[in-house]
Amino acid sequence: MIALLKRDLWLAVRAGGGFGLGLAFFLIVVVLIPFGVGPDASVLEPIAPGILWVAALLACLLSLDRIFALDYEDGSLALLATSPLPLEGAALIKAIAHWLTTGLPLTLAAPLLGVLLHMNSEAYGYLFISLALGTPALSIIGTFGAALTVGLRRGGLLLSLLVLPLYVPTLVFGAEAVRRGAAGMDVTTPFVMLAGITAGAFALLPFASAAALRVNLR
Amino acid sequence: MRLAVTDLACARGGVPVLAGVSFTVEAGQALVLRGANGIGKTTLLRTLAGLQPALSGDIDLPDDQAAYASHADGIKAQLSVEENLSFWAEVYGNPVPDTIYEAFDLVDLRHRMAGTLSAGQKRRLGLSRLGVIGRKVLFLDEPTVSLDRFSVNLFADFIRDQHLAKGGIAVIATHIDLGLDAPELDLEPFRASADQSGGSDEAFL
Description:
The structure holds two protein chains of two kinds.
Chain A: H1 2-13, H2 21-37, H3 41-62, H4 66-73, H5 76-81, H6 87-114, H7 123-149, H8 155-182, H9 188-217
Helix pairs in contact in A: 1-6, 2-3, 2-6, 3-6, 3-7, 3-8, 6-7, 6-9, 7-8, 7-9, 8-9
Chain B: E1 2-12, E2 15-26, E3 30-34, H1 41-49, E4 56-60, E5 66-69, H2 81-91, H3 99-103, H4 119-132, E6 137-141, H5 149-163, E7 169-173, E8 184-186
């Protein structure tokens, strides 16, 4: 399994791997918002946590269709399926690799971009923690969507339609945690819910992804 | 160790293509599958390799010994020849034997990016994977496509000397003569008739 993780990370950072694409998209969306709604701090400050979360979610979505599609096209997915590595493990590793190349950079960059949106200084820590807890769920749910749509032409669009509704709970609790943190309220409940969603998704979805892959490989 | 297939029926896209396929391959033997395009050679090999379920029949082969090689090589263009091979070796928990580069004439290409290889060189790299995974039962689908005569001989030598001689089994679908001393199985008599349908939901599952 380590071999697959190493390979996926290498592929992501080498030419054409798409590493940084999500991050650049995130940066551009967040920079565009003040152009759209105006630079007024009283407008930007309350919407900053929500904007950052929605932008992170869309940036995450951008690279989902590559998780399995490339391996499917060049035949390595069928070879992996017949290898001693269980497909459940492969799906889990793929999600972790996706998070390391997309979710983790987004989490690290988001507090910096908060400055552009006049985010309340209280909220930076909460934003970082909520993204760190929530983005792994985005990756594993997205991996499930990618497994469902692998092999379909124009599957990327269908993938977005399937996956975005499943992102709603993560988005709700993630943005809520930052909003509450910024307002000085108790954040235990949204953080616990967010961590619960992530833990539950990691426990269950690798099995669902593997089942979807087996069907799609037939 | 042997591979025994009894009365196997398999389908492609919900349509039954083969029925009543039976054969036995003993350790150290190869079997060459013959048949016109579309007869179901790939479907049969995929079913044997466990990628799709059989409609009926039994496949008896040792656990965790099957390996499959398809038309697609599973090569990553951004990785070097050596990195591609060592990835598969690691997945199967084996070391990469140095002899594998000589066996497939890859010595000079070892540090080249796989994306810059020619079609035949990629194919050789894809086939050399079989030498690092250490599996005893190989299901090979048109392994010699885009190989020149010299490389076909390299491949046949590898199968004969490195695989079959060590007690391995190989089932090979091919249209050319590999020069292996192996029985041939023509799939034409096993063509499924149209009324032998699979489950009604087969196309959706």
